[in-house]
Every structure is written in C-alpha cells, then in structure tokens.
Amino acid sequence: MAAPGIAVTSIFCLLFSWNEFLFAFLLTRADARTITVGVAGFWTQRGILWGPLAAAATVCVVPMLIFALILQRYIARGLTFGAVRG
C-alpha cells in the first residue's frame, strides 16, 4: 500500500539531487564535476557550443526519463488512491 508513495518520493529525491547545480558548481573541483555542471561548461567566452551542449543535455536527461517511465504506474496509482469519490 505504501509502494506508490515510496516510488514518488524516490523520484523526487533523485530529481532534487540530480538538479543540485549550485552546490556542485561552487563546492567541486574541475576533476570532480557533476554532469549538470559539465553541461554548463559548454558556455565559453567566445560563444555557446550548441552542438555539444545539446548532446550533453540529452545524455543528462535520459536517465531521469527512464527512471520516471519505469515508475510511472506507481505515480498514477498514488494519484488515484487519494481521489475522493462523490
């Protein structure tokens, strides 16, 4: 009965830790960057490298999409359990 809540909580925890850009940007060195900080590295003084930026952003988003698609049935079940029938 608690599986949908645990699944949604795990999605939120993973999303929030994956998107923690500011702490990773300020507190890590160049050799220990996260992927989100690495994506921001394609903004240079000479311009934005659009091709590598788009490829890196796609690679960054794919694990989150796969994780959300796997747990999608638990999200829908958790939303419908809280519905009020009238």
Description:
With 86 residues, the protein is mostly helical. The chain has one domain (3-81). It is built from 5 helices and no strands. It has helices at 3-18, 21-27, 35-40, 50-70, 72-81. α1 (3-18) crosses α5 (72-81). The protein starts with a helix and ends in a 5-residue tail after the last helix. 1% of the residues are buried. The mean pLDDT is 81.
Labels describing this entry:
5 helices, 0% strand, elongated
Any idea what the shape is?
elongated
By oligomeric state, this entry counts as single chain
What is the alpha-carbon Rg in Å? 18 Å
The major sheet is characterized as: none
Topology summary:
Blueprint: H1 3-18, H2 21-27, H3 35-40, H4 50-70, H5 72-81
Short description:
Helix content is 70%, strand content 0%. By secondary structure, the protein is mainly α.
